[in-house]
Specification:
12 helices, Aspartate Aminotransferase, domain 1, binds pyridoxal-5'-phosphate, alpha/beta, globular, 349 residues, single chain, Aspartate Aminotransferase, domain 2
């Protein structure tokens, strides 16, 4: 089917028809120091941010494109991945008509965005070992299934999905497959699905600067896809959705790849230490392997242990109400002293 894949068949009619807003900076974007800009009703007195930001974030995209080995027109940036995901819904899913498929237990925003956009969310549980149930997913899909969300590494289960299962889904699902790689930088020995963008025109990969890059506060999400998909999303994105301060701060950080990798290496090494300590704790029944910067743990009584940890000033996530996650807790990997405190506290409980 991939040779015949035509993205235009999946785009909502109103989106296909609409003419995007053209901002002052869209219409004239040459930056020459000697030019006089009297087009955008800005305050002319310089303070560092008195001008509108670049609506296409060209410098930032250029650097990212170089690092990820894609071209700039295969990138869309958003106010966090949450904005990127919302744009994907609004471009492809017709309210009350289309549906999406998600695989619980997984990231809660897909469901919220589906509800916000009035899109039916068809849930197909992961298998007992937290892998996509490929036959069940394909059986659940119909001609109105526009998006399939695969979160890999998955939140909260922390595992990467089996490569063959993902590939099978990308090949056989007739809508768009969105692979959420928020935690990809913590994975060892496996690359990003961005490498398969040329091969699969129905693939979208999302990443974020909120986790490994340590910039949750500036809100920057990244979407990689075919130039065709990106141009559809560009039509409907708010013109200045990534502010100037975010663009500058993100640029400084991504240009300093070594510093990021150093922190990621330390977080991974702390993750291994935490794993070794957690399996020795009596109230811990199971520690799930992790490809992310958090660890999912099954305990004797999740709610009781959650409350006790709060009392000791340690805030974690209780995942016990999630399907397949009864009595589980999710621990983010912290600094060495924070992880030690967590272990010491659990040992005393
Ligand atoms: C944290 C997280 C994100 C990040 O969202 P931002 O809006 O970019 O901060 C995306 N997806 C998953 C699965 C996450 O856990």
């Amino acid at each position: 089917m991939n040779n015949l894949f035509n993205i235009q068949n999946l785009v909502r009619e109103n989106v296909a028809r609409l003419k995007p807003y053209s901002s002052a900076r869209d219409e004239f974007k040459e930056f020459d120091k000697d030019m006089v800009f009297l087009d955008a009703n800005e305050n002319p007195f310089e303070n560092g941010v008195n001008r509108y930001p670049d609506p296409q974030q060209r410098i930032l995209k250029q650097v990212l494109a170089g690092q990820k080995d894609v071209s700039s027109d295969q990138i869309l940036l958003g106010n966090g991945s949450d904005e990127v995901l919302d744009l994907i819904f609004r471009a492809f899913c017709e309210p009350k008509v289309d549906n999406i498929i998600t695989l619980p237990p997984t990231y809660g925003m897909y469901k919220v965005l589906a509800a916000t956009n009035d899109i039916d969310n068809r849930e197909v549980l992961l298998t007992q070992n937290f892998e996509p149930d490929v036959p069940a997913i394909l059986q659940t899909a119909d001609e109105r299934s526009k998006l399939l969300f695969l979160c890999s590494p998955n939140n909260p289960t922390a595992n990467c999905f089996d490569v063959d299962s993902v590939e099978k889904l990308v090949r056989q699902f007739k809508g768009i497959v969105v692979i959420d790689e928020a935690y990809i930088d913590f994975v060892i020995g496996r690359g990003s699905w961005t490498k398969k963008l040329e091969q699969y025109p129905n693939l979208i990969v999302t990443q974020t600067l909120s986790k490994a890059y340590g910039l949750a506060g500036i809100r920057l999400g990244v979407c990689y896809a075919s130039a065709e998909i990106i141009s559809v999303l560009n039509k409907i994105k708010p013109p200045y959705n990534v502010n100037e301060l975010t663009q500058r701060r993100a640029l400084t950080r991504i240009e300093n790849e070594d510093a990021v990798q150093k922190e990621v290496a330390q977080i991974r090494s702390e993750r291994e230490k935490l794993f070794i300590e957690l399996v020795k704790i009596p109230l811990v029944k199971m520690v799930y392997p992790s490809d992310a910067n958090f660890i999912l743990v099954k305990v004797d009584d999740a709610t009781k242990r959650y409350d006790q940890l709060i009392e000791k000033g340690i805030v974690i996530r209780n995942r016990t109400t999630q399907p397949l996650c009864e009595n589980t807790l999710r621990f983010t990997v912290g600094k060495p002293e924070e992880n030690k405190k967590l272990i010491a506290t659990l040992l005393k409980m």
